[in-house]
Specification:
Layout (H helix, E strand, L loop, with lengths): L19 H4 L22 E9 L2 E6 L5 E5 L3 E5 L6 E5 L12 E6 L3 H4 L1 E9 L5 E12 L5 E11 L11 E6 L5 E5 L17 E5 L21 E4 L3 E7 L5 E6 L5 E5 L36 E3 L5 E6 L12 E5 L4 E8 L2 E9 L4 E6 L5 E5 L4 E8 L2
Parallel strand pairs: 5-9
Antiparallel strand pairs: 1-24, 2-3, 3-4, 4-5, 6-7, 7-8, 8-9, 10-11, 11-12, 12-13, 14-15, 15-16, 16-17, 18-19, 19-20, 20-21, 22-23, 23-24
Length: 388
């Protein structure tokens, strides 16, 4: 698209804080789903089976016994026994600031969960003077004989700083890397400038030790303070982070109008937002493309029209051998499941499957099946298995 040189000085950006994300509903990207050649139900190579339903689910993770933890945005953590279909609430979760895109977020297991039973959760929490920010806590999961349980000894180990007004762009996706470190996506809370400001951790990818302490080998460790948490900067709204089989970290982020991205995350790199983007501001004002500023890391895949990405995982199972090594992204406004193929550090959209509903989360099950969570109230949990 045609661009004009650097029309947008950073000082002018706060006036654009109202975006079509809000106009189109939580996490929508303000554009209609594109009319692409997405595979319809009869063309899909899988069968989608409804397993359960949840109220505004946001994330899920499998326990070693094959059961499932699911977060619900209003502030509940559910434990689903897939064998019986029984669902039980886990108590002891933190109080969440529910509203807009805020609420209960991600849930993941400690790499040594089988021994220590430690889980990590992310959520939006209230601050003072009508401010909010994301937080990450760790706790011990204690299940009971009935399938319920509680989170014990919950401790907050990280917070977004500063807390700001508004209810959008928390990010707070979690992952453990091959290095045993905890990785957190911290979005820029629709405030633009903080993504480039190293005095705060908004608009950044964060790397911590499993207890929340700071690794000495982080790229900005010598700066001290909040900057010591940061691995990369210049991000907008990162709603999926995952490591590939080679240990490389990838992140998808919801961009402005026509600017959704998939990025390969590199130590200390700056991804340019809000100075550059392959999208434009929602009021139509252009943002210079990445190729105008080569010092910023450019995305490996961009979408225009957008897909409104949510969730990210790499497939390693054997149930769909043709997809081993591919990544999958849920599509919100695009109501789709998107498959990404890779060639070294290059990536491309390989397939898109029309699911007919907004897809919030995608995970791989223990048997290699793909599992999807739809978005919203009465959202379905779907298990995808190969067609006969």
């Amino acid at each position: 698209m045609t661009r004009t040189p650097l029309l947008l000085a950073l000082g002018l950006l706060p006036i654009l804080a109202t975006t079509a994300c809000n106009a189109a509903g939580p996490d929508a990207s303000g554009q209609k789903a594109p009319a692409t050649a997405a595979a319809s139900a009869d063309q899909r190579p899988f069968t989608a089976t409804e397993v359960s339903r949840f109220d505004q689910p946001w994330a899920m993770t499998f326990l070693p016994d094959g059961s499932l933890l699911v977060t619900e945005k209003r502030g509940k953590l559910q434990h689903l026994d897939l064998a019986s279909g029984q669902k039980h609430e886990i108590t002891g979760v933190p109080k969440v600031a529910y509203g807009g895109q805020g609420g209960f977020g991600d849930v993941i297991l400690h790499p040594d969960f089988a021994r220590n039973h430690v889980v990590y959760v992310s959520y939006a929490e209230e601050g003072t003077l009508d401010t909010r920010g994301a937080a990450v806590a760790r706790a011990t999961l204690a299940l009971d004989a009935n399938g319920g349980g509680q989170l014990k000894d919950l401790k907050v180990i990280w917070r977004q700083t500063p807390k700001v007004s508004g209810e959008g762009h928390y990010g707070h996706r979690l992952a453990f890397g091959p290095d045993g470190k905890l990785w957190i996506s911290s979005s820029e809370r629709q405030k633009f400038d903080p993504a480039q400001d190293m005095s705060g951790n908004l608009g950044k990818i964060i790397r911590l030790n499993d207890d929340g302490s700071l690794p000495a080998d982080n790229p900005f460790a010598s700066q001290g303070g909040v900057a010591a948490q940061v691995w990369s900067l210049g991000h907008r709204n990162v709603l999926g982070i995952a490591f590939d089989a080679n240990g490389k970290l990838w992140a998808q982020e919801m961009g402005p109008a026509g600017g959704d991205e998939l990025n390969l995350i590199v130590r200390g790199a700056n991804y340019g937002y809000p100075i550059v983007s392959n999208g434009d501001h929602y009021d139509g004002r252009p943002i210079p493309d990445h190729d105008t500023r080569p010092e910023f890391a450019a995305p490996k895949v961009t979408w225009n029209p957008v897909i409104s990405p949510a969730g990210l995982m790499f497939y390693s199972g054997s149930l769909f051998p043709q997809w081993k090594g591919s990544a999958f992204i849920g599509g919100l406004s695009s109501t789709s499941l998107v498959r990404i193929a890779f060639d070294g550090d290059s990536a491309r959209e390989a397939e898109r499957f029309n699911m007919g509903e907004r897809i919030r989360e995608v995970e791989q099950g223990p048997d290699g099946a793909l599992w999807l969570l739809e978005d919203g109230s009465k959202a379905r949990l779907l298990k995808l298995t190969p067609k006969a």
